[in-house]
What we know:
The protein is α/β, with parallel strands linked by helices. The chain folds into two domains: 5-16 and 84-212, HAD superfamily/HAD-like (Rossmann fold, 3-Layer(aba) Sandwich); 18-80, DNA polymerase, domain 1. The protein has eleven helices and six strands. The longest helix is centred in the first third of the chain and has 13 residues, at 18-30. The radius of gyration is 16 Å and the shape is globular.
Amino acid sequence: MTPDLVIFDCDGVIMDSEGPTLRMLRDDxxxxxxxxxxxxxxxxxxxxxxxxxAAKAREHGxxxxxxxxxxxxxxxxxxxxxxxxxxxxxEAVLDRLDAAAIPYCVGSNGRHAKMAxxxxxxxxxxxxxxxRLYAAEDVPAPKxxxxxxxxAAHEFAVPPARVIVVEDSTTGALAAQRAGMACMGYAPHDxxxxxxxxxxxxxxxxxxxxxxxxx
Length: 215
């Protein structure tokens, strides 16, 4: 299907920010009594809001104080400001969508402030996405609820069945499934089994995405 709208996740799909975030998170939680291998931390926490991460970490035995979310965001923002690269090949995908006159936007469980830091480091991309950035704070419930994707589709007046979501997390794939949207699951480092379990079509390189979008 060639879509009428493509919704991209931000972290791990447009911005190469998942690695630094997960390493910081793993080290922080280890100091709070939850010492996990990086791949386990990735399985548990990728795609969640920091409030969701805090709740899950507490469930697994971490000593998370009430002010942890804001404190972690402050430290994370300082790290991301040092430099956050783009996912290799993503600009070429956007070029293809522009050439085909297919609109696109970003739907992230991260905050607007975080996208301003990461995407904002790349002026051409920031200008390109201006007015098309949607965050969990814009809707009642974050992913894996469908609210964010449905909100974005509504803003573009596109029915869910004509939308394709590009995600790298099972949380996001589940949100797309619940929204009634097709999902392309970006899995450059593993098999993407978790994405596939929620109906995503898995791919491992951005160069493959245009063909999956019918371009």
